[in-house]
Amino acid sequence: MLGKLFPIPKMNKIAQAGVLVFRGPNACVSAFPIQSFSTSPCLNQIIKLSRMKVVDNSMLGRKAELASKPARVIHIYNKKGVGYLGDKVLVAIMGEKKRAYIVGLRQNQKENVPRFDSNNIVLVEDNGTPTGTRIRVPIPSCLRNREGDFTKILSIATKFV
Amino acid sequence: MAAPCRKIINQFVKRSLKCFEPRVIPCRWSNTVRNHTVEKHRHSPLSSTRELVNQQDSPSDVMVPREFRFVHPDFLPYPVWNRRDRVREKLEREDMLKRRAVIDIPEFYVGSIMAVTLADKNAPGKQNRFVGICIDRAGHGLYHYFVLRNAIDGQGVEIKYDMYNPLLLKIEVLKLEKRLDPQLYYLRDAPLEYSTFRLDMEPVSVLKGAQVPLNAIKVKMNPRPWCRRWERHNLKGVLPLDDYITEKMKKQKQHPQIEKPWEKHDLMLKARTSIDDREVDQIMTEVYKRKEKIQKEKFQKRGQEGKREVKKAQEVKK
Asked: Where are the stretches annotated Disordered (chain B) (predicted)?
């Protein structure tokens, strides 16, 4: 009787498959048994705990890439709590807290603004100077009019699209 | 006694009525057109289909090439019948032709390699050039757009351009080609070598009047995860995906609700999502005529300018 009144939700189809697959920016495959999963569609947005790719030539970024432990966003310095192109974020990388700027996004962009295949960041020190000396990937040209600390990042960029 | 009394009363009435006179108060929506007004003009005979069809029945003197509609899909209107506005469509077409008189928009297809020069106030030369393969083109009328993709420094980059954006300075087709699929978004999940093109690529010339070459390349995809369920898209330009998907996914793919075998027989769906063939002919004839006229004017202008230059040169010589 109780079961009829309050039907127990059926187990998700993905869970039955036994393999957990995330889609979108935080794509990963895990062969371990399921612990938790989300059935909502991916937002492709930079929120807390989004995984980012460090695209400058800093030692810290390279180390994280080699260890396949990508930087995770732990705070976004705006009121929305969603990071967009050119926003400043705080990331956790190799057990350290670092500030960084978003320089490329995977989500769909407006016309004439490039969309990248990964979510890119450039690490900066607390005083605003970039940690690396060179950026390995192209930077959106629409970020060129940014002022303040962002000009330091533009000065180490190699290409603009 | 009665006359002055009446005067006073009249004055009083006039004054009190002044308060109720309608005044024009600027409000928030005063600069917009009411919805029912728009609706009225939508139902006016000017924007009815019958008239258009009647016009079409009259024999036309110009012969439009059959492939013209495939070269210019941007002139085709939005197919959803209850959201169409024929007056707006006509005005849009006029605007598009005006823009085409200024900038040369060449023939291209999904799969062609293109270069776009964009006005960019932040760039040192006030210009920004991007080369890439066209992976999609869509949008109706003035809102037609195309997406270019390239891999620069091992990083896939895609840019969407509005075709009639006045910021576009130049559109070049470096290699005119077609692919097997109407959209190439699957290149996102393929190795980057399939979407890498040199930024200083030189244009490949194509014989005029020759058929557009078809690039029948089959792309080898990366293993999953993918950004979409490509096994359900019936892609032609991709090597078989059977090695990448599970048995369960193969079974799911054949499910009637996913395969939708009835869709190709659904005449109502076809009517809802496509435009009548006769109307397309009519639009294309109109566009073809206007285009020829604009080209003639352009040639004349060039001829006049040339004459002026010759005159100037002669004067300088004297």
From this structure: 297-318
Q: How far is the alpha carbon of B159 from chain A, nearest alpha carbon, in Å? A: 5
The tens digit of pLDDT for each residue in B301-313 reads 888 877 787 788 7
Testing the interface with B: which of A103, A135, A141 to mutate, by most B Cβ within 10 A? Answer: A141
- Asked if the C-beta of A43 comes within 8 angstroms of chain B's C-beta atoms, the answer is no
H or E element in which residue B7 lies = helix B2-18
- A20 forms bridges with which residues in the sheet? A30
CB contact under 8 A, B152 and A112: no
Q: Mutation target for A interface from B127, B145, B150, B157: give the one with most A CBs within 10 A.
A: B157
* Beta strand spans in chain B (E): 113-119, 127-138, 145-152, 155-162, 168-175
The residue among A44, A50, A120, A82 whose CA lies nearest residue B227 is A44
User: What is the dihedral sign for C-alpha A38, A44, A49, A53?
Assistant: positive
pLDDT bin (cut points 50, 70, 90) of residue B19 is: low
CB B162 within 8 A of CB B171: no
Instruction: Classify burial at A149, counting beta carbons within 10 Å of its beta carbon; exposed 0-12, middle 13-18, buried 19 or more.
Output: middle
CA distances from residue B154 to A78, A136, B165, B208 in whole angstroms, order as listed? 31, 9, 29, 36
Fold of A51-156: Ribosomal Protein L14 (2.40.150)
Closest by alpha carbon to B192, among A117, A107, A131?
A: A117
- Is the pLDDT higher at B277 or at B35? B277
- Mean pLDDT, range B119-124, rounded to an integer: 92
Residue position matching structure tokens 């395969």: B259
Amino acid at B281: D
- Spatial contact of A98 and A71, defined as CB atoms under 8 Å apart: yes
Residue B317, pLDDT > 80, answer: no
Per-residue pLDDT tens digits for B144-184: 999 999 999 999 999 999 999 999 999 999 999 999 999 99
Peptide bond before residue A33 is cis, with ω within 30 degrees of 0:
no
| CB-CB contact of B181 with B235 (8 Å) | yes
User: Tokens 């009190």 belong to which residue?
Assistant: B16
Domain parsing of chain B, residue ranges: 107-274
A134 part of contact set with chain B, CB < 8 Å: no
Residues in a beta bridge with B157: A116, B150
How far apart are alpha carbons A137 and B155 in whole angstroms?
6
Sort out which chain A residues have CB atoms less than 8 A from B122's CB and list them. Answer: 141-142, 144-145
Gap between the Cα atoms of B209 and A148, Å rounded: 55
- B282 or A36, higher pLDDT: B282
* Whole-number pLDDT of residue B291: 86
φ, ψ (nearest 5 deg) of residue B306? -60, -45
